[in-house]
Amino acid sequence: MVNKFRVEAKEKTFCGIDPGKSGAIVILNANQEIIFKSVMPVLKSKKSKPEYDIQSIIKIFRDIQPTFNYVEKAMLIPVSGKSAYYGNGFINGGLQFMLATLNLKYDIISPKRWQRNTFEGMPKADTKQSSILYAKRMQPKIDWRATERCKKDHDGLTDAYCLAVYCWKCNKDGER
Predict the structure, then answer these.
(1) Which residues of 9-33 are buried (b: 16+ CB within 10 A; e: fewer)?
(2) Per-position pLDDT tens, the chain of length 176
(3) Cα distance from N-terminal residue to C-terminal residue, the chain
(4) 93 Cβ neighbours under 8 A, 6+ residues apart
(5) Is residue 125 part of a domain?
(6) Does residue 2 belong to any structural domain of this protein?
(7) CA distances from 1 to 30, 36, 39, 51, 57 (A)
(8) What is the domain extent for residue 134?
(9) How many domains would you assign to the chain?
(10) For the chain, counts of helices (H) and of strands (E)
């Protein structure tokens, strides 16, 4: 699911990346308008687990070239297991390599850092639900489901949106 977009030549853009296989990529312009949003591109197979669609991910960043990029740091969650942590570490390193190769500015941001800033004054017990509430409050006209067939909002999209907003807050006055 790749959206059509148009970025003016000198316009600053701010990207939030939730790197998991159920993660997403959201890019904002300087006015905090969403110019691109997509669940993390993966290749699905009936015979094996989904794998990252690395070519599609590279194409997104090569085409848009966001000015500032925040990638959520891979964190070990005990219930996830080692293979999930390995997968998150793989894509985290891959994203860093890709962004550096494309000469794009990026930073690795811990979830607690952007959540503390974004969810100020909100209940913090369920961060996934908090990101959905925040995204819906800030962008009420946006459909946060992964596809039209989904019944629930996609917390990877809302996390990536929250990370993009945090990126905007930290870099809106920065140099291109």
Answers:
(1) eeebbbbbbbbbbebbbbbbbeeee
(2) 444 455 555 689 999 999 988 899 999 999 999 999 999 999 987 777 888 899 999 999 999 999 999 999 976 555 555 555 555 667 888 899 999 999 999 999 999 999 988 888 777 678 888 999 999 999 999 999 999 999 999 999 999 999 999 999 999 887 64
(3) 28
(4) none
(5) yes
(6) no
(7) 23, 10, 7, 15, 11
(8) 13-171
(9) 1
(10) 5, 7
Q: What is the DSSP string of 68-93?
A: EEEEEPP---TTT-HHHHHHHHHHHH
122 located within any domain: yes
Q: What's the CATH number where 72 sits? A: 3.30.420.10
Determine contact, residues 104/65, Cβ cutoff 8 Å.
Answer: yes
pLDDT digits (tens, 9 = 90+) for 50-91: 888 999 999 999 999 999 999 999 765 555 555 555 556 678
Closest CA to 35 of 12, 10, 7: 7
β-strands 68-72, 105-109 pairing: parallel
Amino acid at 142: I
**DSSP string for residues in 127-155:** HHHHHHHHHHHH-TTS--SSSTT-SS--H
- 127 inside domain: yes
Q: Which amino acid does the sequence have at 70? A: Y
- Grouping H, G, I as helix, E, B as strand and the rest as coil, residue 103 is coil
